[in-house]
Amino acid sequence: MAATDDDLPHGPAAGSGPGRAPGDTGPGPGPGPGPAPGPDPVPGDGTGGGDGDGAGAGGGGGIPAPSADPGRMPRWFPRAVLLVFAAYAVFQLATWAFHALTGLLLNVLIAFFLGLAIEPAVDRMAARGVRRGFATASVFLGILVAVAGFVTLLGSMLAGQIITMVENFPQYLDSVIRWSNESFNTSLSRLEIQDSLLKSDWLQRYVQNSAGGVLDISAQVLGGLFTTLTVVLFSFYFAADGPRLRRALCSVLPPTRQTEVLRAWDIAVAKTGGYLYSRGLMALISGFAHYVLLEILGVPYAPALAVWVGLVSQFIPTIGTYLAGALPMLLAFTVNPWYALWVLGFVVVYQQFENYILQPRITARTVDIHPAVAFGSVVAGTALLGAVGALIAIPATATLQAFLGAYVKRYDVADHPGVSGRPRRNPGASALARARRVLRSGRRLPGADRDA
């Protein structure tokens, strides 16, 4: 049966040359060999003119990308949510670790400055051939012996004075009662006061609370000992391994910065030593002033009390002055109760004099920072870290200034009255020039020009 035109394919047959007619199936001549037969077109892939979905017009264009389903979750969303939760967990972990390690970080900071303070003595001993570890241990041993001797001396003195005060307390109480009866026309009695005190509710509650707080006091004492040992251990390592620590720090810096950082480190050591020198000088001044007062009042053990006041007031910040003044007040009370008030007033006045006048001027000379900067650093350190911040504020500021000085480039300043501090000289505005002008104008009489 012969094929009709409807049974023949309408498109170009596979393997047909470009010169063949659409309905020509014979081996007619063409302009050249046709292209090699390729794979059959896949319906809908855009490579041929088939009936597939999305076929390009005339078989020449590609299929457009299918539109995204608006109800389907993007593939990046679960990963983004996981990253957000992971970042939040890391932040919470870091915050918790920082709050948990705050005490340790403060101890390390104190130990660092203590190591800087004793490093000059260790360097002198190491320069004479002594090993740094042995030299550091010797310095710490000397400090420990001095502190132990001072505490033992004050402890024995305080114990003796407390025994004397307890023995003479009835006499002190009788003198106070006698003065009150004579001054205010009262009829108080020592026996009545003792009975009312012993039978009072607040005394019984205080005794009960004190008995229940023995464990808390013991825990605080053990915690203080552990903190002291931690600071001593870290400061020992900072002082003994100072060169190794600087070598490790400089190993991560380029060679051009290593010399500057080492120079800044030396300046920090010098300024920390200067800070200790300034505290020692203020301790000497404070001790001398309180010694004069105690000698005038006739308080016993005046030299030992003066040393106590000088050291405690300078090396225990914020409350050191008042804590140091409590012991002289106690001993002054054994001489005369009114002498205790004199000591309290002197302590308060001297504290203000030291904070606002003496300390800024001395630290400005020894640590080489401006008095306003020294005072502001102490206030900021107290606000941030409390007593520890007040203690290390000035050496920390001096150290920061030294490190920044290694990186900040300074230039010569132009000569200008605004920076030199010298007023601009204006001959016409001086008092002498104004006086000359007045004298000259007064010499010219009215009508002198007409006569001339």
UniProtKB/TrEMBL annotation:
The chain crosses the membrane at residues 104-122, 134-163, 217-239, 281-299, 330-353, 373-394. InterPro entries: AI-2E-like. Residues 28-42 have a biased composition (Pro residues). Keywords: Cell membrane, Membrane, Transmembrane, Transmembrane helix, Transport. It comes from the Bacteria. Residues 1-70 are annotated as: Disordered. Belongs to the autoinducer-2 exporter (AI-2E) (TC 2.A.86) family. This is AI-2E family transporter.
